[in-house]
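User:
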Amino acid sequence: MILAGIKVLDTTLVRDAVELSRSLLEPYLFNHVMRSWLFGILLSEGAKPAPDPELLAVSAVLHDLGLTDRYTAENRFEVDGANAARAFLKDRGISTQQTQVVWDAIALHTTPSIALHKEAEVVMTHAGITVDVIGIGLDRIPQDKLRAVLTEFPRLVFKNQFKECLCNVVRRKPATSFDNFLRDFGCRYIEGFTAPSFADLFANAPFSE
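Assistant: Predicted structure:
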């Protein structure tokens, strides 16, 4: 199958993942996960070891399920999304090992200090998402392919809509925003937001020394 001039894997599992995301994500967010997948494919060209294309597809396409009403729970949105993807794969008989790779790719997609040291699928899921969100790695995407991706899956005022989405997560689940990048959105955009300092937690630990 060809998307934005890029050859992508066309399997039942991939099609099901795309349709699940399409049915649950707002258009701007659906376009984001699709662009992330395509950027991940482009960044994977020549990579050694190469990621499994099906696991990369599922990881990228499902990585924001934790931001949907259906799958949001009490955890960090990345973990909620990883749990949703695990249930999706379990229903389709995917092996425990492969499922764990997808879980890690989604749960760690905002944590480069860990994700970049994991399996190729985790690395490339993170890399594709990072290109689309903050532009790191954009210089490795050929300009003609970048234009094709943006034409096929336009950004739809992504920055403003995604910012508001993340701020809403902070408002609803502030305790999930203290140890990740959501803290930055809370501090900058949400009046009255405060996050605990690990230095304070350490200093106040219930020990005499």
